[in-house]
Amino acid sequence: MGELKAGIIPVTPFQQNCTILFDDESKKGVVVDPGGDVERILAAIRDNGLAIEAIWITHGHIDHAGGAEDLKEALGVEIIGPHRDDAPLLSQIERQGEVYGIAGVRNCAPDRFLDEGETVSFDGHDFEVFHCPGHAPGHVVYYNRAAKFAHVGDVLFHGSVGRTDLPGGNHEALIRSIKEKLLPLGDEIGFICGHGPGGRFGDERRSNPFLV
Description:
Elements: E1 4-11, E2 16-23, E3 28-32, H1 38-47, E4 51-56, H2 62-65, H3 68-75, E5 78-80, H4 87-90, H5 93-100, E6 119-122, E7 125-131, E8 140-144, E9 149-153, E10 156-157, E11 160-161, H6 171-182, E12 190-193, E13 199-200, H7 201-207
Parallel strand pairs: 3-4, 4-5, 9-12
Antiparallel strand pairs: 1-2, 2-3, 6-7, 7-8, 8-9, 10-11, 12-13
């Protein structure tokens, strides 16, 4: 087993961080949150010689799951996640597209929903699943304990937190998710988020205005 690596492809008008997690030796990996621009994602996979084993979804918003079904058909892999509480959002992605003026998106029907405490893996890289509602009811975070790394989707950002004014949002629940599930993992944990630069939990604990 090689080292865990990550590549980011900004997609959709929202500049969402579609992320490819992969093993640097075997080149096996997964795509996290293919919100759209599927041809760009496929080109990155092809250009880097990667073998994608699954699609992982953090939550059901259009910019994170709008391209999942097209990518699934192109790669012949399963869609895994998020928590089943986001099923209503996933079934309304095409409607979200109409609202935001984004064409070419499709409703998403995951092959498997995830629950708190489950583990998902590829090529020996294990990720613990944390159900972190607040930004979306079924939002999940993927945490690799060995690499001290988490993909937090839109729960936590560098200097900010996920918005909670969308359907199903709950600010108090979001802050609880961060303070009770993420920050206790340790200050040294690095993270990739759904938009913009990532960071480390310790820096957010000390200076994020929503958490201090």
